[in-house]
Specification:
This protein is an alpha+beta fold. The chain folds into 2 domains: 188 residues, Fructose-1,6-Bisphosphatase, subunit A, domain 1 (Fructose-1,6-Bisphosphatase, Chain A, domain 1, 2-Layer Sandwich); 131 residues, D-Maltodextrin-Binding Protein, domain 2, CATH 3.40.190. Helix content is 30%, strand content 23%. It is built from 7 helices and 15 strands. An 8-stranded mixed beta sheet has the order 4-3-5-6-7-8-9-10, sandwiched between helices. Strands 12-11-13-15-14 form a 5-stranded mixed beta sheet, with helices on both faces. Helix 2 runs antiparallel to helix 3 and helix 4 packs across helix 7. The protein is globular. The chain binds 2,5-anhydro-1,6-di-O-phosphono-D-mannitol and magnesium ion. One of its GO terms (molecular function) is fructose 1,6-bisphosphate 1-phosphatase activity. This is Fructose-1,6-bisphosphatase class 1. It is an enzyme of class 3 (hydrolase). Its EC number is 3.1.3.11.
Length: 335
């Protein structure tokens, strides 16, 4: 197999589509380098003293794991000095992180969930990093949270790294989705899947079934039909998988087809769903759409949602197009 590195791939994409300005390419490479460092820490586990809680809480009131904090620091430090960014925002930080004055300010803004699937860290199950890149608004002064309030359709790049049996980087800059595997000996990202496309026909779904009694009627209806199997309205048996790490669940769906759901439920109307629009839903929605799939919040295309705050949560339905369309149509019938 001819090895194509991440750098070579980005340079070739730039030539082909003229869609990756040099600044953006460098920014993506810095993020990828940070993911390599995170992967190294993840791989050390107890030997690197990175397991367990950090005795701090994030803005959502969730207890932070040591690795949440370490990964956040790695991404901040790697991206501060390159001159490509105006500001960053992270699931683990209350407010935005403008680039310090000692460094030049660039024209992009980076958002990330540094370590997704935190509950899996201490049990050696796949976790990941999710990121999204926005353009800073024209003529922007000192960056504010308002500058980040752009719909997901404005993203210029999105990706995730999955730290599993292999470390992989899945990336889109708006011209399809490509996957790179980390060559641990060489320390380089090697292109291993070109133009990933989500299979249309599916027999798999991913949802946390323990919340079933709290779901709203459209989700109850959709999942009940899946569970009814070959004698039900769908006339086939479906299988269920839930890794509790969005990165790993979405990665499986990108490869095998299926639908991932984290719906809102009846418990708390002020917290619609668990996942965050800016750090999780938007980048994953861009990747999934670029791979021929779909992503909605049950009613609206995720990439069309106008954000109103940095840490906003949304219900998420994403994956194979026809499945997302069906569960979305059940929500529409409900009104
Ligand atoms: P995190 O960013 O704090 O790790 O939370 C997000 C994760 C997702 O990766 C995953 O899909 C979901 O939370 C799992 O939730 P649950 O514990 O309800 O199964
Ligand atoms: Mg997360």
């Amino acid at each position: 197999m001819k090895r194509v590195s991440l750098t070579q791939h980005l340079v070739e994409e730039q030539r082909l589509h003229n869609s990756i300005p040099a600044e953006l390419r460098l920014l993506i490479e810095v993020v990828a380098r940070a993911c390599k460092t995170i992967s190294h820490s993840v791989g050390k586990g107890a030997l690197g003293d990175i397991l367990g809680s950090a005795d701090t809480e994030n803005i959502q009131g969730e207890v932070q794991k040591k690795l949440d904090v370490i990964s956040n620091e790695i991404l901040l430090e790697a991206n501060e000095w390159g001159g490509h960014l105006a500001a960053m925002a992270s699931e683990e930080m209350e407010s935005i992180h403008p680039i310090p004055n000692r460094y030049p300010m660039g024209e992009y803004m980076l958002l990330f969930d540094p370590l997704d699937g935190s509950s899996n860290i201490d049990v050696n199950v796949s976790i990941g990093t999710i990121f999204s890149v926005l353009k800073a608004p024209e003529g922007m002064g000192a960056p504010t949270e308002a500058d980040f309030m752009q719909a997901g359709s404005m993203q210029v790049a999105a990706g995730y790294a999955v730290y599993g049996p292999q470390t992989m980087l899945v990336l889109t800059t708006g011209n399809g989705v490509n996957c790179f595997t980390l060559d641990r000996e060489m320390g380089s990202w090697v292109l291993t899947q070109r133009h990933m496309m989500i299979p249309e026909a599916t027999k798999e779904f991913a949802i946390n079934m323990s919340n079933q009694r709290h779901w709203h009627a459209p989700v109850q209806r959709y999942v009940n039909e899946l569970l009814a199997g070959s004698t039900g309205p769908r006339e086939k048996d479906f299988n269920m998988r839930w890794i509790a790490s969005m990165v790993a669940d979405v990665h499986r769906i990108l490869n095998r087809g299926g639908i991932f759901m984290y719906p809102a439920d009846t418990r708390d109307t002020s917290m619609p769903g668990k996942l965050r629009l800016m750090y999780e839903a938007n980048p994953m929605a861009m990747i999934v759409e670029q791979a021929g799939g779909a992503a909605t919040d049950g009613r609206t295309r995720i990439l069309d949602i106008a954000p109103h705050k940095l840490h906003q949560r949304v219900p998420v339905f994403l994956g194979s197009k026809a499945e997302v369309a069906l569960v979305t149509s059940y929500h529409a019938e409900q009104c």
